[in-house]
Amino acid sequence: MALSHIASSSSRSKNLLKPIAAVLSCTPSLRRPISTSSDSTTLTIETSVPFTAHNCEAPSRSVETTPKELLSFFHDMALMRRMEIAADSLYKAKLIRGFCHLYDGQEAVAVGMEAAITKKDSIITAYRDHCTFIGRGGTLLEVFSELMGRQDGCSRGKGGSMHFYKKESGFYGGHGIVGAQIPLGCGLAFAQKYKKDETVTFALYGDGAANQGQLFEALNIAALWDLPAILVCENNHYGMGTAEWRAAKSPAYYKRGDYVPGLKVDGMDVLAVKQVCKFAKEHALKNGPLILEMDTYRYHGHSMSDPGSTYRTRDEISGVRQERDPIERVRKLILAHDLATEKELKDTEKELRKEVDEAIAKAKESPMPDPSELFTNIYVKGLGAESFGADRKEVRVVLP
After folding, report:
1. What span is annotated as the signal peptide, if there is one (predicted)?
2. Which of 254, 341, 370, 372 has the smallest C-beta neighbourhood within 10 Å, fewest atoms?
């Protein structure tokens, strides 16, 4: 029995690696230099692998894009990658404390999803939330300040790595309790349907959270009420240090909804993510909830306390980097269509490195929150407080 599991584990590792050459399968297009990156010339590119559907029709593999969009994909994913690598260094220097879960390798999910929706749509996710926050319009200064517990952070330095938030852009957080964001996301979708504003909610969770009972409870009520909720399983194949095949009898997460349609997509292909998220939004507005399984991969461990190499081989990690890296895929597309030169792309990466370094320097200058900030956003204002205890020195809020 053990030998059969080892063999199946080996085959699954091989399945993580798919040829990057497939990304370059596309229709002929005009050659455009980077100077015309604002050009709206339409390029039609085929996704790396087909979509796999459950109880629905799969969207077309032919994705329409533009030179401007491809260059923006490269810029945004490279920025996220550099930001997460810098966070790694800050954590090791003990400038970031507590929990810290990095997203490098999974950037195509955040960027592709954002390309298919608007800021009026809502996103809620787990604790691997830095890049989703940037995608929703957050700034590097807010990111690094929050990570270092500084006043200029998006949660005023109180939330840390796991609790980024940007309500005005429809980002309802990073959440630290496994799976807890899923029913909250369905609640957001209920509000959207109630208000009839034609928007949807994407509730993201990992393969480790896919076995949570609250997922199925929330999905049941979402399906009963035809809520515009899209449940997105970011399957990076390891829940903490446990491989998916050891934790799930059925790791086909897109089928987990049974009576709810589902789609599996290559989450390392930003154009495929864009295409499936556009399809999912249209479906959810007309028919109710949908499950998306993003087949992706994290390069770091589960968190900064996890080296990430005790339960998987270094060859597996380097193999995914070489064959499926989302940034390299877009780089190859840009070069294949003469949208920029290799030097211009490297110059862009140098500028992004400088931008990240400047943001870190500013974040270090940001003051620590005032001690009084600990008591804000906890109790409703105006309710007062009462003293209690033997010495009457303990204080508690007066509830209405």
Report:
1. none
2. 372
Q: How far apart are CA 373 and CA 358, in angstroms?
A: 26
Could you please state the CATH topology (level 3) that the domain comprising 2-397 is classified under.
Rossmann fold (3.40.50)
Q: 129 vs 110, 164, 378, CA distance in Å?
A: 9, 7, 22
What confidence score (pLDDT) does residue 392 get? Answer: 63
Boundaries of every domain in the chain: 2-397
Higher pLDDT, 16 or 301: 301
Cβ count near 340 (within 10 Å)? 23
Neighbouring C-beta atoms of residue 294, cutoff 10 Å: 30
Does 32 score more than 60 pLDDT? no
Other CB atoms within 10 A of residue 107 CB: 29
* Selection from 321, 296, 292, 304 nearest residue 244 by Cα: 296
State the Cα–Cα distance between residues 102 and 85, nearest whole angstrom: 8
Q: Which residues contact 164 (CB under 8 A, 6 or more apart)?
A: 129, 130, 132, 133, 138, 143, 146, 154, 155, 171, 173, 174
φ, ψ for residue 335 (rounded to 5)? -70, -40
In whole angstroms, give the CA distance from residue 41 to residue 359: 34
Residue 232: CB partners within 8 Å, gap ≥ 6? 109, 113, 202, 203, 204, 205, 291, 292, 294
* Alpha-carbon distance values, 130 to 81, 220, 237 (Å): 11, 30, 20
| Stretch 73-99: mean pLDDT | 97
State yes or no: pLDDT of 396 exceeds 80. Answer: no
Q: What's the confidence (pLDDT) of residue 17?
A: 60
Beta partners for residue 205, in sequence order: 233
β 290-295/229-235 pair status: parallel
Residue 31 has pLDDT above 80, yes or no: no
